[in-house]
UniProtKB/TrEMBL annotation:
Gene3D superfamilies for the chain: Amidohydrolase, Urease, subunit C, domain 1
Protein name per Swiss-Prot or TrEMBL: Imidazolonepropionase
Pfam families in UniProt: Amidohydro_1
Stretches the record annotates as Disordered: 360-420
InterPro entries referenced in this protein's UniProt entry, alphabetically: Amidohydro-rel, Metal-dep_hydrolase_composite, Metal_Hydrolase, Metallo-dep_Hydrolase
Domain Amidohydrolase-related positions: 46-354
Biased composition (Basic and acidic residues): 389-404
TM helices/strands, residue ranges: none
A molecular function GO annotation: hydrolase activity, acting on carbon-nitrogen (but not peptide) bonds
């Protein structure tokens, strides 16, 4: 089926153009005068590439992907799910957001993640000698990148040498490495190991200049998940965690030229202390990024062209001939006011129009089950899907435990670069 959108202003990555006609099937056509099966009058609306949420967790299955799509998020980067059969099923879904996945993350033996009911034993890495086997299992699972949790210090978590070994093994397989880090010490470990992408932002203090300089040196990309940091700080503020530290770190990232992607840690895991809503929360994330100092153009790039470039999604992220017809039609100009991304009037995924829900404002987060409620991890015996969300309760209850004393290295220096 061929669709034509008329009287639409196209966002080209740097500006919104004059009204014109865009024709597409599953790919964007280079000919804007062709005959179309369906014609949509945009009435001067703005057309964006489909949005990318660079940190999600798929728990409810297709329902999560539908929620993403209805709010204009056509690609989600899943940061921890299992078993493999569930991940493969979610990758094959049609007419909803498409996902990539890290599958099972690497965690230390004694931390919160390893103790989650149903967490796969294969995700526990106790030393450098186990790193290559772990990465080999992720390759066998078809992981699109490797996720590691750098938060807890030994004996609960992984030491520097183990993190280094995981990064080296992943890079040998051509895979990017994404590191979970919510404290300054965890960022230092990730930066020293040469990870490609950090996810979350520090809540114990604004990140120091030396670590930011190291991030810039190795080309590390940030996915700060300010939506999750905002909610987490409210829950754990009594432990000295403050949202302002995360926000100010993002401001410093921008000043240093570190690329910032939009990601939310959206999840629907029962028992998660904080649960950003799939789809809707990305619009809140864009607003928080702008409040942290990014321009609307920079925030939009962080949800479109930049994640596509960093994660090698060459077929999307821009509206151009031959690219996937992942498109979002808005009422309003988000380059002038980023809040306009909420005014979704149409969504197409690979040229297929998504059925939008009624235009009712949704909360950016869902009420959650108190800690100690239903388990959020996979039930391996039944094959129920699992998810790794932010909350390492050990590190949140004892801030700063991954400080300089734990920041030891075996001298390895990795120089992997993400795509530019």
């Amino acid at each position: 089926m061929t669709t034509a959108i008329e009287n639409v202003r196209v966002f080209d990555g740097s500006a919104v153009g004059e009204p014109r006609r865009v024709v597409f099937g599953d790919r964007v056509s280079g000919e804007d005068t062709g005959v179309a099966d369906e014609v949509v009058d945009a009435a001067g609306g703005v057309l964006l590439p489909g949005l990318v949420d660079a940190h999600v967790h798929v728990v409810r299955g297709r329902a999560d992907l539908e929620d993403l799509a209805r709010r204009g998020v056509t690609t989600g980067l899943d940061m921890g799910a299992w078993p493999r059969e569930f991940v493969d099923e979610m990758r094959s879904q049609k007419g909803v957001a498409r996902i990539l996945s890290a599958t099972v993350p690497a965690v230390g033996a004694g931390g919160h993640h390893a103790r989650m009911p149903g967490f796969p034993a294969e995700g526990v890495v106790t030393g450098p000698d186990e790193a290559r086997a772990f990465v080999g299992r992720r390759v066998a699972d078809g992981a699109d990148y490797v996720k590691i949790v750098t938060e807890a210090a030994p004996p609960e978590g992984m030491d520097q040498a183990t993190v280094n070994a995981l990064v080296e093994a992943a890079h040998d397989h051509g895979l990017l490495v994404v590191a979970h880090a919510v404290t300054t010490g965890a960022f230092r470990v990730a930066a020293e190991a040469g990870v490609d992408v950090s996810t979350h932002a520090p809540l114990d203090a604004a990140l120091d200049d030396d670590t930011i300089a190291r991030m810039r040196e190795i080309g590390m990309v940030s996915v700060p998940t300010l939506t999750m940091m905002e909610g987490t700080a409210k829950l754990f503020g009594g432990n000295g965690f403050r949202y302002e530290h995360a926000r100010d770190s993002v401001t410093a990232f921008r000043a240093a030229g570190i690329r910032v992607l939009a990601g939310t840690d959206a999840n629907s895991a029962p028992g998660a202390p904080f649960a950003p809503v799939h789809g809707e929360s990305l619009h809140h994330e864009l607003a928080l990024l702008v409040a942290a100092g990014l321009t609307p153009l920079e925030a939009l790039a962080g949800a479109t062209s930049l994640p596509a470039r960093v994660f090698g999604l060459d077929d999307r992220g821009v509206i151009a001939e031959g690219k996937r017809a992942d498109l979002v039609l808005l009422d309003g100009d988000p380059t002038a006011d980023v809040a306009a991304t909420r005014n979704v009037k149409g969504v197409w995924i690979a040229g297929e129009r998504v059925q939008l829900q009624s235009q009712v404002d949704e909360p950016a987060v869902e009420p959650s089950v108190p800690r100690g409620g239903k388990r959020a991890a996979a039930d391996v015996s039944t094959g129920r899907p699992g998810v790794e969300v932010l909350h390492d309760h050990d590190s949140l209850s004892r801030p700063g435990r991954r400080g300089d004393a734990a920041f030891q290295d075996d001298g390895a220096r990795l120089h992997r670069r993400v795509r530019r």
